[in-house]
Amino acid sequence: MNTTWSRFNILSVVVGFSFLYLPILILIIFSFNASKLVTVWGGFSTKWYVSLFSNQGIMDAAWVTIRVALLSASIATVLGTLAALALNRYTRFNGRMLFSGMVYAPLVMPEVITGLSLLLLFVAIGFDRGFWTVTLAHVTLTMCFVAVVVQSRLVTYDRSLDEAAMDLGATPVGTFFQVTLPVILPAVVSGWMLAFTLSLDDLVIASFTSGPGATTLPMKIYSQVRLGVTPEINAVSTIMIAFIATGVVIASIITKRQEVQRKRDERMAMAQP
């Protein structure tokens, strides 16, 4: 099908992408600015990256953020996948509507409300705020996103594959790990990446649930920006952009290769007599 691009369409795409990515490009360029003034170009320099890695406060916050993101994304992926399986496989059970609403509530709940609710919960049960409260809060936030991604894949999943495996003697658990999981793995990986990115980016919920020694990188950046933007902030933001973009590219390549392999296997299976 031939697609014709009018001048209006081209202009709309250029303006839209410029609005989205031009500020990011400017931030990356000025992270290599030799001047202390972030709006005045003083020449190319990498000294702010050297200064960044010698800033112990930012390094500690980055380490906390990475640990929280890795742990919360992994837990959220397991729970979100199980929730998606329950909602997809068991269409009728008592409390299904309530369960579904509780799983997807963080999608539509303002982060301020979620953060305040979790804060009140942790205070009520006497749970000291710190690394684990931030991790649990991020699990609560990201689990629903994983469930949405995995359930969208399960909608098109062929249940006859599971039935064939169990007819051949596989247990339900063995069927899941040997048949179901490999097929839905791209969605699971995508859900993990989404949860990891959301955890890295979160500021509001972490601000409510963090405590001494659990300052995340977005919180650290926000506290410094309030006193004025420095080239170090541009440098750390550039590193975060590069880190997330690399992860997205790797996940896309892996997903694409798995999809190509799956289609190749299907063609080979159909070609066999």
TrEMBL record:
Cellular component terms per the entry's GO annotation: plasma membrane
InterPro entries, per database record: Bact_Polyamine_Transport, MetI-like, MetI-like_sf
Top-level taxon of origin: Bacteria
Principal location class: membrane
GO BP of this protein: transmembrane transport
Transmembrane segments: 12-32, 61-87, 99-125, 131-150, 171-194, 233-254
Domain ABC transmembrane type-1, first and last residues per copy: 62-254
Subcellular location: Cell membrane
Matches recorded under PROSITE patterns: ABC_TM1
Protein's membrane topology: Multi-pass membrane protein
Record key words, sorted: Cell membrane, Membrane, Transmembrane, Transmembrane helix, Transport
Signal peptide: none
Gene3D superfamilies attached to this UniProt entry: MetI-like (1.10.3720.10)
Cross-referenced PANTHER family: PUTRESCINE TRANSPORT SYSTEM PERMEASE PROTEIN POTI (PTHR43848)
Family: Belongs to the binding-protein-dependent transport system permease family. CysTW subfamily.
Protein name (database record): Putrescine transport system permease protein
Organism of derivation: Gellertiella hungarica
Organism lineage string: Bacteria, Pseudomonadati, Pseudomonadota, Alphaproteobacteria, Hyphomicrobiales
